[in-house]
Design brief:
Chain lengths: 172, 125
């Protein structure tokens, strides 16, 4: 099947072709879902949040500016949804998260994943955007709404916290 | 743990999860029932137009209604300008106001765009 670029798909959606939005769901559904699974550690909740994100993106598609990248815009919505979800479920922001409640398959490096869930969501978030979603610094700066240099600083701090959390677990 | 080893472990986080087909279909069935929000931009244009009209109506004191000639020196630039304003009719005065509002709006908009560009400036990794 011929590959249709995001901007062309969005143009079609803006012109009233709702079915074209399915291309974006197919293209980015797994990415948004993976982000939520790793951010909150629950597959069922991640499915609900992913649905919410795509519905919001569809409703707001008129505000999407032509010429910009769709993925950072989509992740901006996803991140806001994730933050709202975590503030509603305060237990997920608790540093002493009970790992037995995590409803996900085993990660390749479960110790690392466990440590990741123990660091504050703000730090977890930036690590996921960089290492799981493979977004560039510039794309992350668009998602977070902060300058590129600050992205680098925050990512460095988040990695430091994760490394410390991992070492504490290894020692214990 | 060495930094290099830690960096390698971080890449294990790239494992992806697959969103179930039924969830994707559920999203699309919801989208078929949903309308795109088009009211926001139209609402903003409408609000701006209304506030512009209200402002023009609520400022009914063009300088030509006042007499400040005894305060100014007609030979100076400012003095000539004030006299010019005083001799305007209502339509010219409205034109001046609209031009003023539009200039403020453009300067504001331009500043926002420039600030955004500066904030997001930076290269790809």
């Amino acid at each position: 099947m011929k590959y249709i670029e995001d901007k062309e798909v969005i143009k079609r959606v803006k012109n009233g072709d709702k079915e074209a939005f399915g291309i974006l769901v197919e293209r980015y559904g797994d990415k948004v879902f993976t982000y939520f699974v790793k951010l909150i550690g629950d597959k069922e909740e991640a499915e609900d949040l992913t649905s919410e994100v795509f519905l919001k993106a569809f409703k707001k598609i008129e505000t999407f500016k032509d010429g910009r990248d769709f993925l950072p815009w989509l992740f901006r919505i996803a991140r806001n949804e994730g933050i709202n979800h975590m503030s509603r479920n305060k237990k997920l922001t608790d540093l002493n998260l009970n790992i037995s409640s995590i409803n996900v398959e085993f990660e390749r490096d479960f110790a690392l994943y466990e440590a990741l869930l123990s660091i504050p969501p703000k730090d977890r978030d930036i690590i996921l955007l960089f290492y799981t979603e493979n977004l560039s610094y510039k794309e992350i700066s668009e998602v977070l709404g902060i300058p590129v240099n600050l992205v680098k600083v925050r990512l460095h701090r988040a990695k430091k916290k994760l490394k410390e959390a991992l070492e504490v677990r290894n020692e214990g | 743990m060495k930094d290099k080893e830690f960096e390698e472990r971080l890449h294990s986080l790239s494992k992806m999860y697959v969103l179930k087909r039924e969830v994707k279909e559920k999203i699309m069935s919801e989208i078929r029932k949903t309308e795109i929000h088009r009211k926001t931009s139209l609402g903003i244009v409408f609000a701006v137009l209304v506030s512009l009209i209200v402002l023009i109506i609520l400022i009914p004191s063009p300088p030509y209604l006042t007499d400040s000639s005894y305060l100014i020196d007609e030979s100076e630039f400012i003095g000539k300008f004030i006299l010019y304003l005083e001799n305007m009719d209502i339509f010219q005065w409205m034109f001046v106001q609209i031009s003023l509002y539009l200039t403020i709006a453009f300067v504001g908009l331009f500043s926002v765009v420039v600030i955004n560009k500066i904030r997001l400036k930076g290269g790809k990794r």
